[in-house]
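ok so I'm stuck.
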Amino acid sequence: MLNPRESGKAFAAVTRQVSPSVVSVQAEFPVDPASMQFPFDKDLFKRLFGDLPEGLLPPTDLPPEAQVETSQGSGFVFRAEKSRSYILTTYHVVQDARSVRVMLLNGKEFEASVKGVDTHSDIAVLEIPTGDTLPLALGDSAQLDVGEWVLAIGNPFGLQHTLTAGVVSAKGRTALGINDYEDFIQTDAAINPGNSGGPLVNLDAQVVGMNTAIFSSSGGYMGIGFAIPVNFVKTVAEQLIQQGSVVRGQLGVLIETLTRETAQRLQLPAGQTGILVVEVQPGTPAAKAGFRLDDVIVSYAGKPVRDLGAFRNQVAATSPGSRQPIGILRNGKPQTLSVEIGQLP
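replied:
not stuck anymore, here's the structure
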């Protein structure tokens, strides 16, 4: 077990190794000049007080550089080639940006192009015109243990290369309503606005996750942050670099977690787990395989199904065109349906 002095030295060693590959991401967004200059609802003002006084009318001749707002985020070098490097960050940092710049620890700045984005998982890949970068080593997030030390490095509130330390609080967090596909690492390492896109690393200086969100009622750190597991990030990033988009499997059902009340209505055994089918979409693989309303999915590809988010991730990660066995309960009796997985549009 590390004592405070040993842990401090370990954190410092990891920081020295990782920081040169962590970048500050600054995105610029176009803004309507009228919305920038008038501080309240113009229509409401007119209904209450009449026409706007001339002095309050927003100028229409603002220079282009004044018609933008900026946002700050973080990122890290994922891959470097001879004349270009790929940076990983979150999609919400660069969403709808008209320009993106990244700055390295050594002060070098580059105009970045957006190589590809995946809106469903909040992952984006940026490309900068230099191969003179050092990619971070990627760990195996599947081997990450609850209680393990992790470090978050990024640019919270624009304060570049800020380090925070904590532990892995939980794994496999789903159904949080943050992304369409969720399997978050939860950590108590302080994550704040501006940390999004930065790496979560272990004490071997390996990336185990990409910081993406916080749980907060105030907008600031409250002890709970979330990172996308690096195994998931890597899979998405490789597809974005190679083909510009992400291919996901499709089943074609709307699903809900099986509640105790529903289990009783369907006369299932006490404690039965699974996923309830509430709609089968016409023409989809599920419809062709014979799924019905109130089927309870209990296994997928031979593995038990208990969590809605994990099940969605399993289907999405399945190669379209492959055939998978899905175990169900129908009228309380077990069946296995063979489904040829489709491709999510």
